[in-house]
From TrEMBL:
<dbReference type="Pfam" id="PF00722">
    <property type="entry name" value="Glyco_hydro_16"/>
</dbReference>
<dbReference type="GO" id="GO:0004553">
    <property type="term" value="F:hydrolase activity, hydrolyzing O-glycosyl compounds"/>
</dbReference>
<dbReference type="GO" id="GO:0005975">
    <property type="term" value="P:carbohydrate metabolic process"/>
</dbReference>
<protein>
    <submittedName>
        <fullName>Concanavalin A-like lectin/glucanase</fullName>
    </submittedName>
</protein>
<keyword id="KW-0430">Lectin</keyword>
<feature type="domain" description="GH16">
    <location>
        <begin position="94"/>
        <end position="297"/>
    </location>
</feature>
<dbReference type="InterPro" id="IPR013320">
    <property type="entry name" value="ConA-like_dom_sf"/>
</dbReference>
<dbReference type="InterPro" id="IPR000757">
    <property type="entry name" value="Beta-glucanase-like"/>
</dbReference>
<dbReference type="GO" id="GO:0030246">
    <property type="term" value="F:carbohydrate binding"/>
</dbReference>
């Protein structure tokens, strides 16, 4: 897809450090930057596994990307995790805890999202781990987010292989608050079903949700899980096939994208798992708008 996205960008692979430096120094025009990037693409000093497939998200101007039937976006990025040995720019590993409510049967254990549970090795998919055999709080899990929280509308495609161990929940979702949230959730205790949701937009509202059949081999092969969060509607796709939409409780405020694997012993996640639960993510592709970035038309 990347080759047809931007006029003037001959490739979607950037030496991000070089590009960021040129933008910050303001010594070069766009044409000069493109020439340097093109010339650098054949240089042996470039480590191709460390290149960010991005539309220069650090700049204040970027081409508007039009996706037919979807919308217009001022940012694009694709993370192919096998190319990385360090966590890529634009993403942030979570490192925080959640305290259980003693009166809430749905959350009997404390949780902790730890850095050590996010495993990235060059040549392999990214792994989000919930260690097996945990019996005491806090229950360790794994999570990462976008490094920015000003996303307003997006098309997000996650290519992942689901854990075959019961007792965790995998989430690919947008989050601003408990009333501004869109979810794709996979409960590994129920491997035949995907749960697709817009969380309730006010305390008195009802959650908008539906479920759909999961791919039969989702624990043995990779599949694309996609949601298009647009103004007034959230659409869901599995392997490019439309499976349904929600028009109520569609988020209206900017926030972050989140990916996680967790358990708290409640009925939703189940668990904690007896064995290590590993969610593998091969790639993430996002078309999105950032409210702090002004887009301009490509010519």
């Amino acid at each position: 897809m990347g080759s047809g996205l931007a006029v003037g960008f001959a490739t979607s692979l950037f030496d991000f450090t070089l590009f960021e430096h040129l933008v910050m120094t303001k010594l070069f025009g766009l044409s000069v930057v493109l020439a340097i990037v093109a010339a650098s693409s054949s240089a042996t000093s470039l480590n191709e596994t460390e290149l960010l497939e991005s539309r220069a998200a650090a700049t204040k101007k970027s081409c508007m990307i039009t996706l037919p039937g979807v919308g217009r976006f001022n940012q694009y990025v694709k993370y192919d995790f096998a190319k990385w040995s360090k966590f890529p720019l634009g993403l942030s590993i979570s490192n925080y805890g959640i305290t259980a409510d003693p009166e809430d049967e749905e959350h009997p254990f404390d949780q902790f999202y730890g850095v050590k549970n996010v495993v990235l090795k060059r040549g392999r998919p990214l792994q989000l781990r919930v260690p097996g055999g945990q019996t005491q709080s806090p229950i360790q899990g794994a999570e990462f987010t976008t490094a920015y929280d000003d996303i307003l509308f997006a098309s997000v495609r996650t290519v992942a292989k689901v854990s075959n161990v019961a007792g965790t929940c995998h989430g690919f979702f947008f989050y601003k608050s408990d009333t501004q949230e869109t979810d794709i959730e996979i409960r590994t205790t129920f491997p035949t079903t995907l749960f697709l949701t817009n969380q309730k937009s006010s305390p008195k509202a009802l959650t908008s949700t539906f479920d759909t059949k999961s791919p039969l081999d989702m624990t043995s092969d990779f599949h694309e899980y996609r949601f298009d969060w647009l103004k007034g509607v959230t659409k869901f796709y599995i392997d490019g096939k439309f499976v349904g939409s929600l028009k109520k409780n569609v988020p209206t405020m900017p926030g972050s994208m989140v990916w996680n694997n967790w358990a708290n012993g409640g009925s939703w996640s189940g668990g904690p798992p007896e064995r290590d639960s590993v969610l593998e993510i091969r790639s993430i592709e996002m078309y999105y708008n950032r409210t702090s970035v002004t887009g301009v038309d490509c010519k």
